[in-house]
Amino acid sequence: MKSRIMFIGGVPGVGKTSISGYIARIMGIDIVLSSDYLREFLRPFAPESSHLGTSVYDAWKFHGDMNDDNIIRGYLDQAKPMMEGINRVISRALANGEDLVIESLYFVPEMMDKGITEEIFMAYIYIQDPELHRSRLEDRVNYTHRNSPGTRLAAHLREYRAIMDYTMRKASESGIGLYMTDHYEQARERLLADFKVFAGQG
């Protein structure tokens, strides 16, 4: 029986953490990983050029003025070691025959090993309405991130939206399913249904 592995991407505030936990519970998957924790582990070991010790919304500062191009350059600096780590984690799960849900801000399909992408379910979630996105960031302290006030992240909505536009476009170009979470429960159930089909349980 093949591993049931979901790799779900999206910027903060779109519902990655809650959807990942929900799907794992419904599907009986015990391992749920967040790239936030992988990043903390990698920070002491990552090359200085990755600027991984900096918040992703500040990584543009290493490239000059604040604009969308530099926001993406900073994001990609960090994505390189992160995607390498994600490739290794998923490869290990596949080798062991383990089920896994991993959710990540860092989601760059062309940095994935081709042999991996053919074996896993990949999805990208996003919020279309910027003001709803801001509200979700501010409210997340009441749900999944109780000690991490979302107002700090909401102050960097522009940076996150630039990253979202870029990664969503890359996901679409790679044929990865896009799930708009403006209507959260509908998107969550559609994503669950699609994953069940992938896992042969649909």
Summarize the SSE layout with pairings.
Elements: E1 5-9, H1 16-27, E2 32-34, H2 35-42, H3 68-96, E3 100-104, H4 114-117, E4 121-126, H5 130-139, H6 150-154, H7 157-173, E5 177-180, H8 184-198
Parallel strand pairs: 1-3, 1-4, 2-3, 4-5
Q: Identify the strand order in the major beta sheet.
A: 2-3-1-4-5
Average predicted confidence as pLDDT: 93
- The CATH architecture category equals 3-Layer(aba) Sandwich
Number of β-strand runs: 5
Number of structurally distinct domains: 1
Terminal CA distance reads: 15 Å
Question: Which regions contain 5 or more consecutive residues with pLDDT less than 50?
Answer: none
Report on this model:
- It is a single chain.
- The protein is α/β, with parallel strands linked by helices.
- The protein has a single domain (5-198), classed as 3-Layer(aba) Sandwich (Rossmann fold).
- Helices cover 50% and strands 11% of the residues.
- It is built from eight helices and five strands; from the N terminus they run βαβααβαβαααβα.
- It has helices at 16-27, 35-42, 68-96, 114-117, 130-139, 150-154, 157-173, 184-198, and strands at residues 5-9, 32-34, 100-104, 121-126, 177-180.
- It has a five-stranded parallel beta sheet, sandwiched between helices.
- Helix 2 packs across helix 3 (68-96).
- The two termini are 15 Å apart.
In short:
By secondary structure, this protein is of the alpha/beta class. Helices cover 50% and strands 11% of the residues.
Q: Which terms would index this structure?
A:
5 strands, Rossmann fold, globular, alpha/beta, 8 helices, 50% helix, five-stranded parallel beta sheet, 202 residues
